């Protein structure tokens, strides 16, 4: 089980977008996540008439390392660390380290 999932609400805790909130769009690999509207870069794109792509400067989101984002805890209104524990019925769930509240109900 991963500590971050697609659709999670996260806060960026390091980098140029520090303190900003966003939603995880996708998990790129084991250590990188793509956050909606965060870590935007300008890319110079060449036109490709065969694919119908116009040229110019486009803005796109780049992946962030998972160590630079924290899961948003609605109870404390801050970013929080996440742990994984096994319930009595054998189900694995994520929980916030600060207050022990289960993330996925």
Give me some keywords for this one:
SH3 type barrels; 105 residues; two-stranded antiparallel sheet; mainly beta; 10 strands; 6-stranded antiparallel β-sheet; elongated
Structure summary:
It is built from no helices and 10 strands. The chain is mainly β.
Overview of this protein structure:
Helix content is 0%, strand content 47%. It has 105 residues and is mostly beta strands. The protein has a single domain, classed as SH3 type barrels, CATH 2.30.30.30. The chain has a six-stranded antiparallel sheet with strand order 6-3-2-1-7-8, with no helix packed on it. The chain has a two-stranded antiparallel sheet with strand order 4-5.
How is the topology of this model organized?
Layout: E1 9-12, E2 21-29, E3 32-35, E4 40-45, E5 56-61, E6 64-65, E7 69-73, E8 78-80, E9 82-86, E10 92-96
Helices, by number, come to: 0
Could you say what the CATH topology is called?
SH3 type barrels
* Helical/strand content category: mainly beta
Task: Give the number of DSSP strands.
Answer: 10
Q: Kindly, what is the distance between the CA atoms of the first and last residues, rounded to a whole number of angstroms?
A: 15 Å
Q: Helix proportion of residues, in percent?
A: under 10%
Question: Stretches where pLDDT falls below 50 for ≥5 residues?
Answer: none
What would CATH call the class?
Answer: Mainly Beta
Counted up, domains total 1
SSE string, helices as H and strands as E: EEEEEEEEEE
C-alpha-based Rg, rounded? 17 Å
Approximately what portion of the residues adopt beta-strand conformation? over 45%
The largest β sheet comes out as: 6 strands, antiparallel
Shape, please? elongated
Quick check: average pLDDT? Answer: 93
Order of strands, widest sheet: 6-3-2-1-7-8
CATH architectural group: Roll
């Amino acid at each position: 089980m991963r500590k971050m999932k697609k659709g999670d609400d996260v806060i960026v805790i390091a980098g140029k977008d520090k303190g900003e909130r966003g939603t995880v769009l996708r998990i790129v690999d084991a250590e990188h996540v793509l956050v909606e509207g965060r870590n935007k870069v300008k890319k110079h794109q060449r036109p490709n008439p065969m694919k119908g792509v116009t040229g110019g400067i486009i803005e796109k989101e780049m992946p962030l390392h998972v160590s630079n984002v924290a899961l948003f805890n609605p109870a404390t209104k801050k970013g929080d660390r996440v742990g994984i524990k096994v319930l009595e019925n054998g189900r694995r769930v994520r929980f916030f380290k600060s207050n022990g509240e289960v993330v996925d109900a």
